[in-house]
Amino acid sequence: MKPIFALIDCNNFFVSCERLFRPDLENRPVVVLSSNDGCVVARSNEARALGIPMGAPVFKYRQLFQEQGIVRFSANFELYGDISERITRLLTGVTPRTEVYSVDESFLDLSQLELADYEQWGNELRRRLLREVGIPVSIGISATKTLSKLASEHAKRDEGATGVLNLVDAPKAMQDTYLARTPIKDVWGVGWRLGPRLRAEGVHSALDLSQLRPQLAQQLMGIHGRQMVAELNGTCCHRLEPFGKIRQTVMHGRQFGEDTNSFAVIEAAVASLGARAASKLRAENLLARGAAVRLATNRHKPGYQRTSRHVSFATPTADTGLITSRLMAAVEAPFNDKLWYHKAEVYLYDLVSQQRLQADLLGHLDLAASAASQQRLRAFDAINDHYGKRTIRYAAEDLSAVWQPKRAHSSPHYTTNWQELPTVQASHQDRPG
After folding, report:
1. E strands of 40-185, at which residues?
2. pLDDT cut 70: percent of the chain above it
3. Least confident of 159-168, 293-302, 418-427
4. Which residues on neighbouring strands pair with residue 8, listed in sequence order?
5. What's the CA gap between 12 and 189, in Å, rounded?
6. What DSSP line would sit under 242-295, residue for residue?
7. Is 297 helix (H, G, I), strand (E, B) or coil?
8. b vs e for 24-44, b when ≥16 Cβ sit within 10 Å of the residue's Cβ?
9. Which residues contact 117 (CB under 8 A, 6 or more apart)?
């Protein structure tokens, strides 16, 4: 059966999440800032129209923010993640053949749905997402993932766009028009690295790339280039990623709120990041055979240095206590109190499914100890799920809060913290008669 893909792309997702509980911000310029409020990571259409680029350093645009009344938010990833999960649950109810590509994008395979009108289906899904979740989306529909991604961008950006673009039934001349209007840098899989190389070969648009000889595309970009040419011509090379596919790594990293040379601060940061990574493992029923921690000074200051340490586990684990204690011990050796550290990252890798943990012939895996650890951690997670995140935690996480990123413009955790639920005030006049 020939695949038909729909890409569901949330419009200005971080901004839309903030506006969900602040309807007064509709039609006002809004930006969301990165860790430590350093640069712009999301913009409303109104902010984009004022000339604020993605990644804009805040200190360079502070005056413009003030003059234009631009509303700033520190990134609220708990809120964004929760809204993303709600969208995913709705989409998997439409069809289980769903691939969550990123926090704000999902591919759906529509080939097994009996749909007479793809555009009508897309418009109905947009209305449902807006009604049930509150997030506006754009939808691109085509025979390949690359074309669906391209279609969603035109459904979002083009003047007069309705939010849905169906290229499945479009004549070739119409498809070529959209390809011609897509700069090469905006083709899925090209980006800023391959763009200059392709432009040097006279390839300036998606249409140019679609007309490139497959052999030349492979010479320029490897097998990925040949696949891009095929996908732009309607031949599917990329199927949906299997739902529940085991990820390769889990990483959590943060820039510190202020640079530090205190080992207690580094310990607290590593313990907190390790705890978050371990929690992510357990949420996906995964175990790690290895872990790594990386410390770095500020790359924009003289004497930039970066150190990494790796640890391995005889028995694959998702035990927060074991993982964080091993990582904290690992950072002690390379720690230098003459350096001012700016960032820490924790990686968990060589992941396996918890259900597939088996004893080895040499007896290195202690299945009894692993089962006891999992039982303890289930109780740990159940308490935090019921009473709120970090209700119970390891003491090392509280050694210092100096490392925590600055979030001067953070919105409440409307959907994940009982103490920060939105409230509604009703006056006597608002009551029905």
Report:
1. 40-43, 71-74, 98-102, 105-109, 137-142, 164-166
2. 94
3. 418-427
4. 106, 139
5. 21
6. PTTPPPSEEEEEEEEEEEE--HHHHHHHHHHHHHHHHHHHHHTTEEEEEEEEEE
7. strand
8. ebeeebbbbbbbbbebbebbb
9. none
Calculate the alpha carbon distances from 429 to 425, 426, 433 in Å: 12, 8, 9
Predicted confidence (pLDDT) at residue 125 exceeds the cutoff of 70: yes
What is the 8-class DSSP label of residue 406? P
CA separation for the pair 355, 72 (Å, rounded): 44
* Residue at token pair 């006002």: 28
Angle at 225 between CA 220 and CA 227, to 5 degrees: 160
**For the whole prediction, is pTM greater than 0.70?**
yes
Contacts by 112-119, CB closer than 8 A, 24 or more apart:
112/1, 118/4, 118/6, 118/166, 118/168, 118/169, 119/164, 119/166
Beta strand 164-166 with 137-142: parallel, antiparallel or unpaired?
parallel
- Within 10 Å of residue 333's Cβ, how many Cβ atoms? 8
Strand partners, 251: 347
Q: Which amino acid is at 392?
A: I
